[in-house]
Design brief:
Length: about 325
């Protein structure tokens, strides 16, 4: 089977390396033509994942037309570019393909999950799944064991991808709750920025544990209100991914929070990063979804105030701690 990966950032590159033994051919589409050319020549992504060599059966391209003929199309583009990329690639797709989104974010203006964007853009009833779980790109590229979730509203779609992707170091669990998986994937990035703020302020493990636990409660409330299942958020795509992103040194979103706590401006922080920290944009969409579904999201609201309204991290923390007392 042929696999097409749309997106040549760290995650797309790592997935190409990890999945190479499972496919005869992988086409890795890279948006930046100069990077695609260098990656084709050197076999190393010197911008987003230096130090790892692409296997020989991974072909690098800057032409979306090379996705034609793939059995599975794996989308790893940032959420802000998802609609444009899938729209441009749609003429090369057909209904026999399976489309998997591994993007952990939401479309800003519409508040849609990326799987919903795909369903809107593709000119046929597509077989769509979403991939998420506790994974850092560098560890996946190194071949370290990891477990992740593949979710689809069609059981055969999820199990087909599960069989195709699973290997000795990459274990997939099938799920039917696309809403829970995608909301967990997107909102954990916002909570991780908060975790970085706590670390940057010199706060310890008590604070981090409280943030993760109450952050998970917020994510679960919203996911359930949108039609997801609470048990999904207690698994790999919820709690597992949240713990990793809030505590791991490789977390880009956590790094944003650390730098905010040091007093750097968001514009300066984002401008210095080669890779996208999805939580920055997702935060606004999460606030809007909370309002739409009448769900209380106090941590996410405070993070929005820090990120986009100039509120100081210490003031946000104080306001969270001084909220009216509640039952758990």
């Amino acid at each position: 089977m042929k696999l097409a990966i749309l997106g040549g950032g760290s995650w797309g590159t790592a997935l190409a390396i990890a999945l190479a033994p499972r496919f005869d051919e992988i086409r890795l589409w890279v948006f930046e033509k100069d990077l695609a050319e260098r990656l084709h020549r050197s076999r190393e992504n010197d911008v987003f994942l230096p130090g790892f060599r692409l296997p020989e059966n991974v072909q690098v391209t800057a032409d979306l037309g090379d996705a034609a003929g793939a059995g599975i199309v794996l989308g790893v583009t940032p959420s802000r570019h998802a609609r444009a990329v899938y729209s441009a690639a749609a003429p090369y797709f057909n209904p026999s393909m399976i489309f998997v989104s591994a993007t952990k974010g939401l479309e800003q203006n519409t508040l849609l999950r990326v799987s919903e964007v795909m369903a809107q853009v593709l000119p046929f009833r597509a077989k769509i799944a979403v991939l998420s779980g506790p994974t850092f790109a560098r560890e996946i590229a190194r071949g370290e064991p990891a477990a992740i979730v593949i979710a689809s509203g069609e059981e055969t779609v999820a199990t087909t991808v599960q069989r195709a992707f699973s290997g000795p170091s990459f274990r997939l669990y099938a799920n039917s709750d696309m809403i829970g998986v995608e909301i967990g994937a997107a909102l954990k990035n916002v909570i991780a920025i908060g975790a970085g703020v706590c670390h940057g302020l010199g706060l310890g493990n008590n604070t981090l544990a409280a943030l993760i636990t109450r952050g998970l409660a917020e994510i679960t409330r919203l996911a359930v209100a949108m039609g997801g299942e609470a048990r999904t958020l207690a698994g790999l795509a919820g709690l597992g991914d949240l713990v990793l992103t809030c505590s791991g040194e490789l977390s880009r979103n956590r790094r944003v929070g650390i730098e905010l706590a040091k007093g750097r401006s968001l514009q300066e922080i984002v401008g210095s990063m080669a890779m996208v920290a999805e939580g920055v944009e997702t935060c606004s969409a999460a606030v809007a979804l909370g309002i739409k579904f009448a769900v209380d999201l106090p941590i996410i609201h405070q993070m929005h105030a820090v990120l986009h309204c100039g509120k100081s991290p210490r003031e946000a923390l104080r306001d969270l701690m001084e909220r009216s007392l509640k039952s758990e």
